[in-house]
């Protein structure tokens, strides 16, 4: 095992899970994250037992306490039970599946880790001998192993494997309302408006920069005004005048999966991508959060058993699972937008 800390790029779920598990094993790691430590996510995600129970076992954490702390409705002494909706259609759920608050989950994972906030990766040089990270403000870091967990828009992937492209999937309108937090005095909601791409579509901008997610075209509000009469509470939530006052983000239904050869080209230089950085799934109908947790736990265990010189073996072991996850997510997003299944 190298005396240098393992370098993790990206403090999302995969990176935080990996860092937390490595720490539990006594293996030093440092996480570099481009944004500040301010909370970023105030919405719910569906967590499955196959993803979180191995993590809890390793960290010796009690499942009941975990759910009580992180479930969306934990303030009301319940544990995130799911309701049937379009966004969970087709997902393999069991009694252990629950609705988890992503922001609180990330905060829980951050505990006792070495996380370097506001350290944006500008470029990376990787050879078989060494890896040099170029961070913002002309800061450089030399390391031997880099694990890229920097999401679907991975800077590592763009720099070292530009041939691995994001693909955008679109297959009619899905409207969904989710509760993030609530008490006797307030309720915090998220809502989703998802539809296929149209010809000459002013809302479909697959090449937009990451900050462009907050640039909402006027055509979006025009579309909301053109929706047929909606029942309550959809007519209130999707009122265009009210939506204008909210923080709206434009997400793209994108997937990616590098080939085995592309992955080998990276691991030969000491670089491995996991999570959405290498097998991204759509934000709707996907299993990205769960697969990120599982990748982090499994990679930490692999490093403990085999060190960091066999990263290719890890990716080979996981590849069929990654491929199946991407293919099933694409199938679900298509089924979700099937007009024959539409209902309110």
Overall, the morphology is: globular
Which structural class is indicated by helix and strand composition?
A: alpha/beta
The biggest sheet amounts to: 5 strands, parallel
Please give the radius of gyration in angstroms: 20 Å
Poorly predicted runs of 5 or more residues: 84-90
Number of strands: 14
Give the integer mean of the pLDDT values.
88
| Series of H and E elements | EHEEHHEHEEEEEHEEEHHHEHEHH
Helix fraction? Answer: 25-40%
Distance N to C terminus: 55 Å
Question: Number of helix segments?
Answer: 11
Task: Tell me the quaternary state.
Answer: single chain
* Widest sheet, order of strands: 5-2-1-9-14
β-sheet strand percentage: 15-25%
Please characterize this protein's 3D structure.
- By secondary structure, the chain is an alpha/beta fold.
- The radius of gyration is 20 Å and the shape is globular.
- The chain starts with 5 loop residues before the first strand and ends in an 8-residue tail after the last helix.
What distinguishing features does this structure have?
three-stranded antiparallel β-sheet; 344 residues; globular; alpha/beta; 14 strands; five-stranded parallel β-sheet
Task: Describe the structure in brief.
The protein is of the alpha/beta class.
List strands and helices in order, with pairings.
Elements: E1 6-9, H1 13-24, E2 29-32, E3 44-47, H2 49-59, H3 63-70, E4 98-101, H4 102-109, E5 115-116, E6 121-126, E7 131-135, E8 140-143, E9 146-148, H5 155-160, E10 167-168, E11 174-182, E12 187-194, H6 218-225, H7 234-237, H8 240-243, E13 254-255, H9 260-267, E14 271-273, H10 288-306, H11 311-336
Parallel strand pairs: 1-2, 1-9, 2-5, 9-14
Antiparallel strand pairs: 3-4, 6-7, 7-8, 10-13, 11-12
Helix pairs in contact: 1-10, 2-10, 9-11, 10-11
């Amino acid at each position: 095992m190298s005396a240098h800390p393992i370098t993790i790029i990206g403090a999302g779920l995969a990176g935080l899970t990996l860092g937390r598990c490595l720490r539990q094993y006594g293996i030093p790691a440092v996480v570099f994250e481009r944004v500040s430590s301010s909370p970023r996510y105030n919405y719910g995600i569906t967590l499955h037992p196959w993803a979180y129970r191995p993590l809890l076992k390793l960290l010796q954490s009690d499942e009941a306490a975990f759910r009580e702390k992180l479930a969306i409705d934990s303030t009301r002494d319940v544990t995130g039970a799911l309701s049937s909706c379009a966004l969970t259609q087709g997902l393999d759920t069991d009694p252990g599946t629950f609705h988890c608050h992503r922001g609180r989950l990330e905060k829980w994972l951050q505990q006792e880790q070495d996380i370097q906030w506001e350290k944006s990766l500008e470029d990376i040089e990787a050879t078989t001998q060494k890896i040099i990270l170029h961070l913002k403000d002309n800061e450089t870091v030399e390391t031997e192993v880099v694990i890229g967990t920097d999401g679907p828009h991975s800077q590592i992937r763009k720099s070292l494997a530009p041939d691995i492209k994001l693909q955008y999937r679109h297959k009619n309108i899905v409207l969904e309302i989710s509760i993030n937090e609530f008490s006797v005095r307030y309720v915090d909601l998220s809502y989703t408006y998802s539809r296929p791409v149209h010809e000459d579509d002013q809302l479909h901008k697959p090449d937009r920069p990451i900050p462009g997610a907050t640039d909402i075209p006027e055509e979006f509000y025009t579309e909301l005004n053109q929706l047929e009469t909606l029942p309550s509470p959809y007519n209130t939530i999707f009122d265009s005048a009210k939506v204008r006052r909210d923080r709206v983000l434009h997400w793209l239904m994108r997937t990616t999966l590098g080939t085995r050869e592309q992955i080998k080209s990276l691991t030969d230089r000491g670089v491995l991508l996991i999570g959405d950085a290498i097998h991204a799934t759509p934000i709707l109908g996907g299993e990205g959060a769960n697969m990120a947790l599982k990748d982090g736990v499994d990679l930490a265990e692999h490093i403990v058993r085999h060190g960091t010189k066999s990263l290719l073996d890890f990716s080979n072991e996981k590849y069929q699972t990654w491929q199946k996850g991407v293919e099933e997510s694409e199938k679900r997003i298509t089924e979700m937008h099937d007009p024959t299944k539409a209902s309110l």
